[in-house]
Amino acid sequence: MKINPLLLSMMSLFATTYTHAAAMDQSGQSILAFLEDKNYFEANIAAVSPDISGKIRDRTDLVDANSRDLNTGDMANSFQYYNAALKLQIAPKMSFGLIYDQPFGASVQYPLRSNNTFSDNEYTQTGTSVDVDTQNISMLFGFQPDPHINLYGGGVYQTVKGSVSLRGNSMSIFNGYDAHFKEDSAVGWLAGAAFQIPEIALKAAVTYRSEIKHKIDTQETIFGESLILTPPADTKITTPQSVNLDFQTGVYKDTLVFLNARWVNWKETTIRPTQFGALTELATAELSQGTYAGGFNLDDYHKDQYSATFGLGHQFTDRWSASTDVSWDSGTGNPASVLNPTKGGWGLGLGIQYNPAANYFIAGGIKYFWIGDATAQDGTYYIPVPGASEVAQQGDYRNNTAIAYGLKMGYRF
């Protein structure tokens, strides 16, 4: 079966690209570059432009009395992220790899609106915002006992930093709250196995990544004044464990199909800064008249993420190839947090690859996402107080979309 080895690189151009629908999942944490033949290097860049807005529930506790504006405005910022990978065949049966990616992220900025629901026009003149940045460096070692099997594993070094600002009527007593999460580093691990039959371009791999636990020094303020209700302590955040399944096979001359499936254990991830948690405990004790004082989280997820991408690649000439793919994402539950008011969705991608020479390529693509509808809620939705869940529902986000652009370069040596 005649398939240029560099055509196989197309399957990762959009197979694991940005999925805004599922919590903060961003890069997809692909290890496909490590499964390339011989020595190999690649670099990717992706730019994402989401359009996400909703309609606020028409309630006096959410919307200013002098406003009839029920629109949230577009609250999702455009952003870029980068990946790079190096794979070396250091011996006939031993390989080594380094993969850099930005696995999780968020960029949210509610605009100023006259409703003051998610923005504060009076004091700070800013809207609710979230900014999260993570970086991973994965070091892999592979052992190939025969030409068909590759066993691999290694360590992961991860950094996390971020900030959040809560603004508007929807935030109640938390309006004016800011948290700055200083950069923290921690380590985890990954392991996996791959099977291949080069003659028919078949390759299958399953990869497990561990959770990574962080303790982050966090500065918390209200309207610029330090918030100190309890002795200071680091914020504990665990980035989730995950499993990736990758599969490809040739189905006809110059044609292959590919599949990427992914599970991310988001429901074990919670974010509750120390002072914020103490304030929520006071608030819930008063709200429930002393029957519940457990507080609530700044952000959390109540379902795991499942996603899948199915695609087709075809080599037209020695220099030109193209691919298309369809993706689905389950999201992490509905109602969703006002800090990420989406639930799953579908995507359609197109890619094209040019091989100037036999050992390197340039690929580009575009992908359009239909983001799943969601009801937005604040952190009190799940507390065991009668009527809390109804009050916590603040808006409905419908018919939202995103578009992503990708550029990838690969070199075999």
What separation lies between the terminal Cα atoms?
23 Å
CATH topology: Porin
What is the mean predicted local confidence, pLDDT? 92
- The CATH architecture designation is Beta Barrel
Structural class: mainly beta
**Number of alpha- plus pi-helical segments:** 3
Q: Return residue spans where pLDDT drops below 50 for at least 5 consecutive residues.
A: 15-20
> Major β-sheet, in short?
14 strands, antiparallel, barrel
Walk me through this protein's architecture:
The protein has a single domain, classed as Outer membrane protein transport protein (OMPP1/FadL/TodX) (Porin). It is built from 3 helices and 27 strands. The protein has 413 residues and is mainly β. It is 6% helix and 54% strand. The two termini are 23 Å apart.
Descriptive labels:
413 residues; elongated; four-stranded mixed β-sheet; 27 strands; mainly beta; Porin
Which SSEs are present, and which pair or pack?
Elements: H1 11-14, E1 40-51, E2 55-56, E3 79-91, E4 94-101, E5 105-109, E6 119-120, E7 126-127, E8 129-146, E9 149-166, E10 177-197, E11 202-209, E12 212-216, E13 218-222, E14 225-226, E15 235-239, E16 242-252, E17 255-264, E18 270-271, H2 274-287, E19 299-300, E20 305-315, E21 320-329, E22 336-337, E23 345-357, E24 360-371, E25 374-377, H3 388-392, E26 393-397, E27 400-412
Parallel strand pairs: 22-25
Antiparallel strand pairs: 1-3, 1-27, 2-26, 3-4, 4-8, 5-8, 6-7, 8-9, 9-10, 10-11, 10-13, 11-16, 12-15, 13-14, 16-17, 17-20, 18-19, 20-21, 21-23, 23-24, 24-27, 25-26
